[in-house]
Amino acid sequence: MFGLVKTVFCPQAAIVFDVFHIVAQYNKVIDGVRRAEARAAMETDKNVIKGSRWLLLKNPENLKEKEIPRLEKLLSINKNLSKDELKTIWQCNDRQQMSKALDDWCTKALESGIPALKRFVKTLRRYEYGILNHADYPIHTSKLEGINNKIKVIKRQAYGFHDLEYFILKVKQACL
């Protein structure tokens, strides 16, 4: 689909992948690893791992004071669950710097030996062009997703417009 849109309608467009969507996919991988580790854990460690899903997925700055020691204990039990610095790749300003950060992250993930992380690295490599394009075009999809949400609300409130031009005017009015 991306190829068709780019070549037919916008041949000069560069496809940029937003950090939010990549991290969302990574969170699914981490959740799968956490479940596998919980199944494989010894009985004494299961109590620490059980109920740790949101603790692992939280951003460090959002951790509560009492959650920090639990996270540290959880990570000391199993290094496979360690939080990663995937988001820092998008903080690079330069394409070469971003490429190096991505290479470093992928190398660490591959060295972990975790099959789910290896598959995730393959996905990242397949879409590397869109990730690296973020260095040239540091945009995020949050505004676009907000506008899409507005359009959906307008469509729901109207129970469908029979006149496309009127619908377009309503969307333009909402986005001013």
From TrEMBL:
InterPro entries on file: Transpos_ISL3, Transposase_DDE
Signal sequence interval, chain numbering: none
Highest taxon listed in the record's lineage: Bacteria
Domain (Transposase IS204/IS1001/IS1096/IS1165 DDE) ranges: 9-171
PANTHER family to which the protein is assigned, alphabetical: TRANSPOSASE FOR INSERTION SEQUENCE ELEMENT IS1557
Protein name (database record): Transposase IS204/IS1001/IS1096/IS1165 DDE domain-containing protein
Species per Swiss-Prot/TrEMBL record: Koleobacter methoxysyntrophicus
Taxonomic classification: Bacteria, Bacillati, Bacillota, Clostridia, Koleobacterales
